[in-house]
């Protein structure tokens, strides 16, 4: 075998190896397309089943959504009804409040009229008291004149003696009355209307303007302008002048010249202060 033959032999061997490699590669890459198609058919069917399930779930979800929307609409309708009812109640309350304002205004007007009427009646009562005192004075005067004339007719000397004795007795009574008035801080020239009754109460509140609220009022006979003494036990604290009175309480201002110590809630007040 010459050199060319050897070369062809080598080439043929090399080409055999190459074709053998191609054959092995083709066999390695060979697939069963029928089986593959069957697997794909199963996958498609499985996907279709999944799609059908998803469609069923979608339908259920849409139905649930529709039910939820209906429930929401029902709740909205109910809330709207409640809102209308609440608005109606609010309007009714507003109307009632307006009526109460009108009634309160009428009550205030009636109270003002009552206070004016009370002031008028108080003035009339004071006038009647003055007339009664004058009538009593005239009656006493006439009675004295009648007694004097009768005594002059019947027993001038005896009546004179009795009148002297009566004069001594009256002088003693006047002296006793003067002592009683002085003991209570009064005098014979003080008007009767300015004399407060003998009452006693408590300090209810104090503010920074020297105003004091006490537990005595017009029902107790207290009037604006009356003075009250403030004390604690046997310690004198000061004097206040009544500025305004209600039925069961009054407000007064502490008179600076009479203040002796700090005044507290619960201190005693009275129209007279007497150390026991």
Briefly summarize what is shown:
Helices cover 64% and strands 13% of the residues. It is α+β, with helices and mostly antiparallel strands.
Q: What value does the Rg take, in angstroms?
A: 59 Å
Strand content: 5-15%
Order of helices and strands: HHHEEEEEE
Question: Number of DSSP helices?
Answer: 3
Write down the overall mean pLDDT: 84
Question: Largest sheet at a glance?
Answer: 6 strands, antiparallel, barrel
Strand order of the largest sheet: 1-2-5-4-3-6
By DSSP, the count of extended strands is 6
Q: Which word captures the global form? A: rod-shaped
Poorly predicted runs of 5 or more residues? none
Helix content: 55-70%
Terminal Cα span: 167 Å
Structural class per helix/strand content? alpha+beta
Description:
With 276 residues, the chain is an alpha+beta fold. Among the domains are: 37-154; 196-270, Thrombin, subunit H (Beta Barrel), CATH 2.40.10. 64% of the residues lie in helices and 13% in strands. It is built from three helices and six strands, in the order αααββββββ. The chain has helices at residues 3-29, 33-154, 156-183, and strands at residues 200-206, 211-214, 227-232, 235-245, 250-254, 268-270. Strands 1-2-5-4-3-6 form a six-stranded antiparallel β-barrel. β3 (227-232) and β4 (235-245) form a beta hairpin. α2 (33-154) packs antiparallel against α3. It is rod-shaped, with a radius of gyration of 59 Å.
């Amino acid at each position: 075998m010459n050199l060319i033959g050897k070369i062809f032999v080598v080439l043929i061997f090399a080409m055999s190896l190459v074709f053998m490699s191609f054959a092995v590669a083709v066999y390695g890459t060979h697939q069963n397309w029928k089986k593959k198609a069957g697997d794909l058919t199963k996958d498609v069917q499985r996907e279709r089943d999944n799609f059908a399930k998803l469609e069923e779930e979608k339908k259920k979800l849409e139905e649930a959504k529709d039910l939820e929307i209906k429930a929401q609409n029902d709740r909205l309708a109910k809330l709207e009804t409640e809102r209308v009812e609440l608005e109606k109640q609010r309007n009714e309350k507003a109307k009632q409040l307006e009526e109460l304002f009108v009634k309160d205004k009428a009550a205030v007007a009636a109270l003002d009229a009552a206070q004016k009427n009370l002031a008028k009646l108080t003035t009339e009562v004071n006038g009647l008291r003055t007339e009664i005192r004058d009538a009593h004075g005239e009656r006493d005067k006439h009675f004295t004149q009648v007694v004097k004339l009768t005594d002059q007719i019947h027993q001038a000397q005896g009546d004179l003696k009795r009148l002297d004795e009566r004069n001594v007795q009256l002088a003693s009574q006047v002296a006793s009355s003067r002592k009683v008035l002085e003991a209570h801080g009064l005098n014979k020239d003080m008007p009767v209307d300015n004399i407060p009754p003998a009452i006693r109460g408590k300090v209810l509140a104090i503010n920074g303007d020297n105003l004091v609220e006490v537990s005595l009022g017009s029902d107790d006979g207290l009037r604006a302008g009356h003075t009250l003494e403030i004390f604690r036990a046997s310690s004198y604290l000061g004097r206040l002048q009544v500025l305004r009175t209600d039925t069961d309480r009054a407000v007064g201002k502490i008179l600076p010249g009479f203040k002796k110590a700090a005044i507290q809630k619960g201190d005693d007040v009275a129209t007279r202060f007497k150390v026991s």
